[in-house]
């Protein structure tokens, strides 16, 4: 059997040691990945990081979805390649010019030896379904090789998206954790006798927050105000005065009875809770993939133009978040000249698009996915077809795409995500799910302990009653634990 015949060898004629070695390697890698995710989950649960644990579960769901997609492509690929269509149907909406397609009987075939060319061509036809469809004077709807490449692309896209999302949150979290020193300084000032004895009258227009956000550029012109917000996202997007003002506004609105509330810790937990939504690939994102795969037509340079979508959206989101901070400063400065105590901003959903802060998270999710789609598509084409492939496009279109992709990733990590983490807390409502979850866990733990104590007490009372030296209880309902509070809709205040 010639070298070409080995391509069609089945398991019936494959050495058993080859099958065993390949299976061992695949199983070992799969088990190692599964154990890694398992121990990561145990660590997150042990350290009581429930939001990150849920994000890990979301990653597992995505991997399961990838496995199911892989299974479908593998099981049905032989049937797909036997779907035959007229050749004219396959001449429209091509990503490359049809004249660049190598011909099976052209110059390439002339370099092959006469003895091996027909045999190789027959095997290639069988592998692509051409042998089945050629008998009907038609061509296969999707070749076996194309189905295999599509399979790889979907896998690469999901992995790159999850990786980029994790990197964005990690680097963004590093930036946010730098603000912890501001939180610690506030706690220290609250216990300082010098700060306590200071007069409690604040001159609004002399406050750093107002001077930076209201008295400077944009006080008299809305256009200049938006321009200042646009530029502010690139340098010092959140200053210490911004943090102090927004923190005090949040605490005054949502937990006035607990001025010692750790706003920084709450903000980190809220961001971790949102991360489980960002890391997933929702159904509408898969629709986005299908649409742009459809629009990848020769001459349109689709993947060059769509690179500007996350770029423009990211700048719009950053500008909006900066402008919200400026709006909060404007509201205070326009109403007050001096206030008793600390300057207080008033959080409100009205500052966000359509009064819904969650739209910002949706846009960040879409931005990260679309940027990952761009980068994944580039590297997939590079590895699969080569840098000179017609799908890759010309160099003058490739370089800007890569520069935009890197810019979006860096700006989103170090500016937009930290901005989102703090500004999204300026909505009308605080993140109830965090408090509901932790309070519920605490109540359940307390209930279980009370139940154990109750069981021990009943046993002791029963033994004592048998001896006749303990009066019987008139009503045992007082020892029952009522857990109805867990089903209430009213969330606990964040001052617990």
Automatic annotation (TrEMBL):
Bilayer disposition of the protein: Multi-pass membrane protein
Record region (Disordered): 464-496
Annotated transmembrane regions: 17-37, 63-81, 150-174, 278-297, 303-321, 359-382, 402-423
Gene Ontology biological process: defense response
Compartment(s) of residence: Membrane
GO MF annotation terms: calmodulin binding
GO CC annotation terms, alphabetical: membrane
Biased composition (Polar residues): 469-481
Annotated keywords: Calmodulin-binding, Membrane, Pathogenesis-related protein, Plant defense, Transmembrane, Transmembrane helix
Family, similarity comment: Belongs to the MLO family.
Entry domain remark: The C-terminus contains a calmodulin-binding domain, which binds calmodulin in a calcium-dependent fashion.
Functional summary from the UniProt entry: May be involved in modulation of pathogen defense and leaf cell death.
Descriptive protein name: MLO-like protein
Gene: MLO
